[in-house]
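A note from the maintainers: we've had questions about how concatenated examples are separated. There is no special marker in the raw files; a new sequence line simply starts the next protein. For clarity in this README we add a label.
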Amino acid sequence: MPILNAIVHRIEKAGDAPARLLAASEPLSASDTLEAMLEGLTRAYHAKSKAWGHFSDTTTEAGNVEGEEADAPASALAAEITDYLADKRDFVTLTRGIAERLARLLDAHLSVSGDLMVLDTRFGDARFLTLALLHHREGFAIDGDLQPVPARQLNLTQMSLAARLDISQWQSGDSRQYLSWTRERGGKALAEGFAALLGGVEGVDAPGETRTLLKAFSDYVEKEDLAEEASREKTETLVDYASEQASRGEPVTLEELSGLLDEQQPKAFYDHIRNADYGLSPEIPPDRKTLNQFKRFTGRAGGVSISFDSHLLGSSVEYDEHSDRLIIKQVPKQLKEQLKRQG
């Protein structure tokens, strides 16, 4: 992934004292270490729970960082990045402005220091701007005399505030989920403040969209009345594909997924989604946590074959371990009609 520009600004924060910005005066030089660090940072970011959306094109009074004007444009960062891409603003100036606002955000909500890393990268035809506030951890290393020594290193997995802009999607104008940012668990005010700093507006609920996709898949499996083995294979295909997309930071494309699920009828699942009107976008940012919770329980014995999604356990399906009974509360329509005819 070629690095077009990279820089680190340090923000020092100790107790109640105001945050102090130690700004870099020039971008980082290209190096193998920087490339390797980018790979680690990218993997760590993709593993985070994130919000997905776009730049706001309106003004807002909500979530402003203390000390800023209430009517400041929510899209101020978007305007600055636009200037940078048009060579009207240099990378150092762009990123220093971000660091200054981030320091004020830390003053208002956190008492931690960190290094703000900002990278402008290109991958194939796509271009990304990534920013992350990184923290350090104390560790150990072995020196040249084979002795253990203290070693302070960046903890890439502990990025309390990070964001990624897909510049290519943003400029194309046909997406509303080109901007993503981490969901900070430290508090609602911090999360809102960070979104305001970015000028970001959530455009899609990744966990909700993923759950809807899995519901559509469950309905599809039931409608097609698939055999146990075929159902399990398709479930694994969906989860493997969506998880791989999540690890790459890429969305699930419904048409591509449909083709993977059935090579003989590549449009079958896609048509099922469209005909049933689940309200899904053509591309969905997958939520890893939701995917990890999804699996199918299957079993066959004595002429009885049972298969259902794990999320139904406790609602539509109950298991009484004491009496060894499985209770199905919502009998599938097709099965219900067959039972009625038999009776």
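[label: protein 2]
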Amino acid sequence: MKHTLFIVAFLVNTFMFSQNMKTYVYSIKGSDTLKLDVYTPKNIKTNDSLPVVLWMHGGGFSGGNRNNPDEVKLMKYLTQKGFIGISISYRLLLKDSKTGSGCECPKTFKLDIFRQAAIDYLDAAKYIVQNKTKLQIDPTHIIAGGSSAGAEGVLNAVYLKHFFVDDASKYENANFAGIISLAGALVNANYISEENAIPTVLFHGTDDNLVPIGKAPHHYCKPDQLGYMILEGSDIIANKLHELHTPYYLHKVVGGRHELCQIPFSKLDEILDFFNKTITDKEIIQTKHIIQKK
């Protein structure tokens, strides 16, 4: 009986996580060879063109990896739901830095890191659109997603493209249908407009000590510190989208800190349902979930 149960469990597990994964180089920048892992359902048909989540991992622009265990788990989940999951690497410009991204890291350097991360993300998006047939992606249904530093990179790539990129026309075909931001923020939410506002999912803790949920300094640096730079977090972004009558889903944890950057696996079905209703069915859903930290 034990052997039978083991075989059944093995077959169920194999079916649930049945996908192909291929790695591609999307850009080479100096000594950095930037790659992306494409996870595709094994049962995909030749002529299928599937929606995609293009994911940027966190790590304070100094660490993390596109194949972190949680990133791999997320990619496998997406293939079960009929998506193609793509997890990217990008330049970790603070790797081996003595200051990290804290208050001793100059604001000008932080801004350039944000800029380069946004450009790397846009280059990855441009690559998958240029190779949409080979990768079997639907270029009209690309959801941009990221965690912590990755969320900052994604938000700035989508909403501040014209602020950070000198020639945005290079990315005119790299468009996004939705965003998932886990503990992310923008340099200036006023760049969100009727022209670029899209359905956005936001997870954030009210007591995040690194990335503010409202309008506050990055890492809560003091005005006389080199790293003093104002960011606008999930509350500000949600309010802006509310004004623009654009769908959003804000999950706010009162007392929550930066752990809200972790992938919310228990909420993924709800998140994808939100995108199905707002992207596919064009519904205007503006939701705020406010819970107390346990």
